[in-house]
Amino acid sequence: MKNTKKTFLLGMMLLQTGLLSSCYKKWTPGDGPHHPGDNVVTTNRYYVDSNGSDSANGLSPATAWKTLSKVNTVTFQPGDSVLFKRGDAWTGTLVIKSSGTADARITFGAYGSGEKPRITGNNSTLSAVLIQDARYLTFENFDVSHPRAVRPPDMALCGIYVALATAGVYPGITIKNNDIHDVEGMPITNRHMQGGIFVRSNATQGYFDSLLIEGNQLRRCSSRGILMGDGSNKDTTFYNNHVVIRQNVIDSSALEGIIVYTAKNVMIEHNRVLNAGAYTLGVNMNIVLAGLWGRGKDMTIQYNEVAYTRLTNPVPYSSMDSEAFDIDLSSPGYTIIQYNYSHDNAGGFFLHMGDPGPDFTYGIVRYNISQNDGNGFNYRTFELHGHPNGKTVPIYFYNNTLYNDTMIGVLDRAGGTGVHPGLAFRNNIFHAPALQFDDQANIVYQHNLYYPGAKAAIDSSALQGNPLLIAAGTGGSGINTLSGYKLSPASPAIHAGTLISNNGGKDFFGLPVSGSSAPTIGAAEKE
Question: Is 481 strand, coil or helix?
């Protein structure tokens, strides 16, 4: 009987030891969306405490490691977690070069209570955090900064730098729920190498797959808030693939809040981009920007708020850019810009650079609300660059609601002399006392509603009259402040639009839009 008890107790001790060193976290429907890797085997938990000891084993809070240098020397195994103590701070660079697997991710995160663990870069390397050649890795719940004492700054700096040095595919990187701030590199020099979060492959045939950047707060970042790619072109076969940038807040960047190069199958959604161009650190920038845009292949930009984008310096670009959104040069595939809220951007709502390149298929701009955009540039809501040699560029603007308390302009960059075949405006509400529409010889205007300004002369199917918006011009801070752009029951816009195939199926507010009968004009369907 005694031997049986000893065997039982020994078994329980071994079981408890196993549970402490190898835990299984199973996803259940109540946990939220299910992503690959949510069923995670945690092999070891390592702890880092600024009062710890690098000679300890790191496997418990009582035996935590102390320094970034110690963490940087360890190659972690699939399923490992590396947890930094909340309320503590480290200076230097955290270097991560370990990989998990689809079923056993590596996680860098926080433990304890209090503020997020802080990592402050010391200017000795490009970034405060470097993640290189990693697969299936999550970096979450950190406070990351990279300040510079020199004013103006004289070097390139990043917050989190996710890099590839070796060819191959690198799936499953997640950067989420971090606070990234005061990244103070030289805003203009090496601007394609700096951001609060900077993702780049240095290998011609190396690329990320299933990359997620979610729920981060970025404040005062130079040059960009979130930057993917370095502005150079590469074979689209090796574009970063399946990229999601979601639910981030970017406030005050030197240049773009979010910009994406060399990526395909891109989703950018539910972000807030505020004050792009505001954080110049005393540097004369002489450069142009837009709040949120990219040169990705097959890109969808939706449910974002972009506001207060400004010109960084008035010379020599005194009348260019500073819009919320852009379909730019070298944009292969399609770009869809839908369900966004754009307001108070100095250069306007939308920039079209004229020639997205030979591999561009189409652009769609639909169900967006623009309020008081372009007031810094003679009330230019749209800036359109001419198409080279009269090239047809298919971009379709439909079911947007555009409001300005002074004027709305669809303006050619060349002062009205450019041509823009392929652009078409249908089912939009243009709500402003004055309206200007350039290049009516080449741009299609059909079934739009104009109030109270004069319609586009070429729009033979136009409506003119009050659309009876519930409270036009009352949008505030946040995409959920726009109920004033719904329509009163007596609105003449209701079911007055022209039918558009593959129309997205729902309006700005989520109401269904018929695919077989006339839709309502503007971003709001009849309730």
Answer: coil
Q: For residue 354, which of 395, 325, 293 has the smallest C-alpha distance?
A: 395
**Tokens 């623009």 sit at which residue?**
370
Nearest to 400 by CA among 331, 329, 340, 473: 340
List of residues 6+ apart from 153 with CB closer than 8 A: 184, 185, 186, 187, 222, 281, 283
Round to whole Å and give the CA distance between 150 and 334: 43
As a whole number of angstroms, the distance between CA 354 and CA 387 comes to 5
Q: How many CB atoms lie within 10 A of CB 182?
A: 19
| Tokens 């372009």, residue located | 374
Per-residue pLDDT of the chain (527 residues; tens, 9 = 90+): 434 334 433 343 333 333 333 343 433 434 444 444 444 455 899 999 999 999 999 999 999 999 999 999 999 999 999 999 999 999 999 999 999 999 999 999 999 999 999 999 999 999 999 999 999 999 999 999 999 999 999 999 999 999 999 999 999 999 999 999 999 999 998 899 999 999 999 999 999 999 999 999 999 999 999 999 988 878 899 999 999 999 999 999 999 999 999 999 999 999 999 999 999 999 988 889 999 999 999 999 999 999 999 988 777 777 789 999 999 999 999 999 999 999 999 999 999 999 999 999 999 999 999 999 999 889 999 999 999 999 999 999 999 999 999 999 999 999 999 999 999 999 999 999 999 999 999 999 999 999 999 999 999 999 999 999 999 999 999 999 999 999 999 999 999 999 999 999 999 999 999 999 999 999 999 87
Please state the φ and ψ torsions of residue 437, each to the nearest 5 degrees.
-130, 110
**489: preceding bond cis by omega (within 30 degrees):** no
Q: CA-to-CA distance for 199 and 262, rounded, in angstroms?
A: 10
Task: Let me know the angle formed at the C-alpha of 51 by 50 and 52, rounded to the nearest 5 degrees.
Answer: 95
Q: Are 161 and 177 in contact (CB under 8 A)?
A: no
Q: What is the DSSP letter of 487?
A: B
d(CA 105, CA 176): 14
Query: Cβ(245)–Cβ(267) under 8 Å?
Result: yes
389 DSSP 8-state letter = G
Query: Residue 161: which of 111, 116, 106, 119 has the closest Cα?
Result: 119
Answer yes or no: are the C-beta atoms of 391 and 353 closer than 8 Å: no
Residue 384 burial (C-beta neighbours within 10 Å; 0-12, 13-18, 19+): buried
φ/ψ (deg, to 5) at 329: -60, 155
pTM (predicted TM-score): 0.92
Interatomic CA distance for residues 416 and 427, integer angstroms: 23
- Asked whether 449 and 465 are in contact (CB, 8 A), the reply is yes
Are 236 and 251 contacting, i.e. CB atoms less than 8 angstroms apart? no
In whole angstroms, what is the distance from residue 40 CA to residue 19 CA? Answer: 14
